[in-house]
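Record type: monomer structure entry
Structure origin: computed from sequence
Chain ID: A
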Amino acid sequence: MQVQPMKVGELIRQLSDLDPDLEVVMSRDAEGNGFSPLSGLEVGHYDADCTYSGEWSESSEVAPENSVAFWPVN
């Protein structure tokens, strides 16, 4: 079964009932082989190579905003 990418609206719905003081951590990979706290986010352009990987860049006229990237502390 293919996992669908999450949209901002779904993220907001899932976060809306949580304690706003909870720390946000990110998994290094789908298997949970390490975690890092979230340090920030940035809106940009994501170009998928396949269903699970691709390239992200700052947005431009050629590559308009279509995603938000979450950056880990490490």
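Annotation 1: The radius of gyration is 14 Å.
Annotation 2: The longest strand covers residues 35-48.
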